[in-house]
């Protein structure tokens, strides 16, 4: 047999099928992902009945600037551990908050509630905070409500 006779006896190239599934991108991309081992647990999503976790809903701070219309600058002070010395250090940050009635002055204590973005820098609404002194007065008035007279009232 001659060489040309052998070439004519071979099947055409189109009818040959290669066994690899990677030819011409016919493989699904999920097969190309990393193989999973039995030691690694698949990351599961939290149950659907739990509410989503939203951080930083309320902040409390002091008004440091009230010159802008319907906007106050509030300085929030928090305690955070120092990265090297692990001592708690005061950290200050200023937030712009919406004050629709311009009722807050410099030095007022306000609470910041998270809201939809009002402008580029304002995502909080300023709400009056309960004074710490008013809480103490409530505890002082509690003995009178219980019917226990105070020592100062007994002597007078």
TrEMBL record:
<comment type="similarity">
    <text>Belongs to the universal ribosomal protein uS17 family.</text>
</comment>
<dbReference type="GO" id="GO:0003735">
    <property type="term" value="F:structural constituent of ribosome"/>
</dbReference>
<dbReference type="InterPro" id="IPR000266">
    <property type="entry name" value="Ribosomal_uS17"/>
</dbReference>
<dbReference type="GO" id="GO:0019843">
    <property type="term" value="F:rRNA binding"/>
</dbReference>
<protein>
    <recommendedName>
        <fullName>Small ribosomal subunit protein uS17c</fullName>
    </recommendedName>
</protein>
<dbReference type="Pfam" id="PF00366">
    <property type="entry name" value="Ribosomal_S17"/>
</dbReference>
<keyword id="KW-0934">Plastid</keyword>
<dbReference type="InterPro" id="IPR019979">
    <property type="entry name" value="Ribosomal_uS17_CS"/>
</dbReference>
<keyword id="KW-0150">Chloroplast</keyword>
<dbReference type="InterPro" id="IPR012340">
    <property type="entry name" value="NA-bd_OB-fold"/>
</dbReference>
<dbReference type="GO" id="GO:0005840">
    <property type="term" value="C:ribosome"/>
</dbReference>
<dbReference type="GO" id="GO:1990904">
    <property type="term" value="C:ribonucleoprotein complex"/>
</dbReference>
<keyword id="KW-0689">Ribosomal protein</keyword>
<dbReference type="GO" id="GO:0006412">
    <property type="term" value="P:translation"/>
</dbReference>
<keyword id="KW-0699">rRNA-binding</keyword>
<dbReference type="GO" id="GO:0009507">
    <property type="term" value="C:chloroplast"/>
</dbReference>
<keyword id="KW-0809">Transit peptide</keyword>
<dbReference type="InterPro" id="IPR019984">
    <property type="entry name" value="Ribosomal_uS17_bact/chlr"/>
</dbReference>
<keyword id="KW-0687">Ribonucleoprotein</keyword>
<keyword id="KW-0694">RNA-binding</keyword>
<feature type="region of interest" description="Disordered">
    <location>
        <begin position="123"/>
        <end position="156"/>
    </location>
</feature>
């Amino acid at each position: 047999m001659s060489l040309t006779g052998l070439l004519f006896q071979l099947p055409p190239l189109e009818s040959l099928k290669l066994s690899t599934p990677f030819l011409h991108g016919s493989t699904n991309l999920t097969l190309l992902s990393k193989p999973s081992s039995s030691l690694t647990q698949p990351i599961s999503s939290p149950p659907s009945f739990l509410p989503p976790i939203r951080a930083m809903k309320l902040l409390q701070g002091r008004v440091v600037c009230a010159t802008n219309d319907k906007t106050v600058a509030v300085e929030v002070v928090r305690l955070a551990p120092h990265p090297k010395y692990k001592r708690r250090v005061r950290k200050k940050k200023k937030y712009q908050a919406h004050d629709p009635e311009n009722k807050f002055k410099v030095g007022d204590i306000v609470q910041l509630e998270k809201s939809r973005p009002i402008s580029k820098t304002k995502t909080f609404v300023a709400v009056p905070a309960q004074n710490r002194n008013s809480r103490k007065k409530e505890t002082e008035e509690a003995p009178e409500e219980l019917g226990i007279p105070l020592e100062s009232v007994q002597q007078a």
